[in-house]
């Protein structure tokens, strides 16, 4: 109880004139103190915080006294006093509203530490991990002296990029024929995945344009090598509302046959955010939000949030495509929807799927890919699936 009381008192001190928890508490993310901990010794501290949902956050070190400061958008810290603590590197814990819409958690430190690692896992509930290591006085002072970004305030969640609602306009589709150029993809009987996918995509594009309601861009129009990241950039430049990568890989084990819709797995999503955030050309990564002046951590969080928005849309996209393919009577793999860490699916804010039309390792799949009637059936199914998804997606997003 002593901790709670202290927390309440310090909240009041931090808040100044602001009323305690004046915000709508129902809107707050909640801390799960039982799943949170602060552990460590004189050299290293690990802070783990379990929060009911991902929120934008940031972390920094301040001096006088040495402390770790974490700002979160609307997290209710009233249970922070119940976080299990071991070791004596953290001498005090405080929490309160830092400013409207933002709450701050402060860990007072026994000496100079710097942040070695900070991250938030955002699959389902959020899990924040911050690792501190004992630092030299110089390193600590430098970290603590870093200026506050002039406008570190993050955009409102509603300002996060969403694909513009353009009811009535054509659906902007990017078709990505897998492989190409020096990378033929799977090969069998003198045929390559790269060339089969290119001709399939060309036919599909023509038909989509003929049928109307679609604006189609292809990541390659000929037999050239296009790096995976360039494919994502092409999609972004085209203002893609949906990205469909087309493949027919060979699988060595088992008897893979039939079409499969792949989405990006959660685990890969998080890693993708991290890797993408480290890149220089951040404005390429997330349309609508200027990330160039944000630090890496903030960039990661914003992308995670975009992904939180995109993930259910991708799941519905995969479902709609699989349903349409099945409805068209096209053979599907016995696991028609699967997840994998395909790099080309890593756009945080463009719903992306990878369609294995079949497997070149299967003779019957290869035969089907070469059959114009089968291709026509499959192309019709993809178009129907995209239409169904788009209609449902727009209806849901208007709610
Ligand atoms: Zn492939």
UniProtKB/TrEMBL annotation:
* InterPro entries with a match to the protein in the record: AMIN_dom, MurNAc-LAA_cat, N-acetylmuramoyl_amidase_3
The UniProt entry, under SMART domains, shows: Ami_3
Tell me which EC number(s) this protein carries. 3.5.1.28
SUPFAM superfamilies in the cross-refs: Zn-dependent exopeptidases (SSF53187)
| Entry's Gene Ontology cellular component terms | outer membrane-bounded periplasmic space
Cite the GO molecular-function annotations of the record. N-acetylmuramoyl-L-alanine amidase activity
Q: Give me the reactions it catalyses.
A: Hydrolyzes the link between N-acetylmuramoyl residues and L-amino acid residues in certain cell-wall glycopeptides
Keyword presence, Hydrolase: yes
For this chain's UniProt record, which GO biological process terms are given?
Answer: peptidoglycan catabolic process
Asked if the keyword Translocase belongs to this entry, the reply reads no
Residues spanning the signal sequence: 1-22
Q: Which UniProt keywords apply?
A: Hydrolase, Signal
- Domain MurNAc-LAA, residue spans: 232-387
Going by the entry's taxonomy, the superkingdom of the source organism is recorded as Bacteria
- Any idea what this protein is called? N-acetylmuramoyl-L-alanine amidase
Question: From what organism does this protein derive?
Answer: Paragemmobacter aquarius
């Amino acid at each position: 109880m002593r901790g709670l009381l202290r927390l309440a008192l310090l909240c009041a001190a931090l808040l100044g004139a602001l009323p305690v928890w004046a915000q709508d508490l129902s809107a707050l993310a909640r801390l799960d103190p039982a799943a949170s901990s602060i552990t460590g010794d004189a050299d290293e501290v690990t802070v783990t915080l379990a929060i009911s949902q991902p929120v934008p956050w940031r972390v920094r070190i301040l001096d006088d006294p040495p402390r770790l400061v974490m700002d979160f958008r609307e997290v209710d810290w009233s249970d922070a006093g119940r976080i299990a603590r071991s070791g004596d590197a953290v001498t005090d814990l405080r929490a309160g509203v830092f400013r409207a819409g933002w709450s701050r958690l402060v860990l007072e430190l026994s000496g100079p530490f710097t942040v070695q690692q900070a991250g938030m896992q955002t699959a389902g509930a959020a899990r924040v991990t911050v690792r501190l290591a004992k630092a030299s006085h110089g390193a600590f002072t430098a970290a603590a002296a870093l200026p506050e970004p002039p406008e570190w305030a993050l955009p409102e969640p509603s300002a996060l990029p969403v694909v513009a609602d353009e009811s009535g306009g054509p659906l902007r589709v990017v078709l990505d024929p897998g492989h190409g150029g020096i990378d033929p993809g799977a090969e069998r009987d003198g045929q390559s995945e790269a060339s089969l996918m290119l001709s399939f995509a060309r036919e599909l594009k023509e038909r989509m344009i003929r049928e109307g309601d679609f604006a189609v861009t292809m990541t390659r129009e000929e037999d050239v090598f296009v790096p995976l990241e360039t494919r994502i950039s092409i999609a972004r430049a085209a203002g893609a509302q949906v990205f469909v990568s087309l493949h027919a890989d060979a699988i060595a084990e088992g008897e893979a046959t039939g079409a499969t819709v792949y989405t990006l797995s959660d685990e890969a999503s998080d890693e993708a955010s991290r890797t993408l955030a480290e890149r220089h050309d951040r404005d390429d990564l997330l349309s609508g939000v200027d990330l160039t002046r944000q630090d890496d951590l903030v960039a990661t969080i914003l992308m995670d949030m975009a992904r939180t928005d995109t993930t259910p849309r991708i799941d519905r996209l995969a479902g709609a495509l699989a349903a349409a393919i099945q409805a068209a009577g096209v053979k599907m793999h016995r696991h028609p929807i699967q997840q994998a860490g395909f790099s080309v699916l890593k756009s945080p804010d463009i719903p992306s799927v990878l369609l294995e039309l079949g497997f070149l390792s299967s003779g019957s799949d290869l035969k089907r890919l070469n059959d114009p009637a089968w291709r026509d059936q499959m192309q019709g199914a993809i178009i129907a699936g995209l239409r169904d998804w788009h209609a449902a997606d727009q209806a849901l997003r208007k709610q």
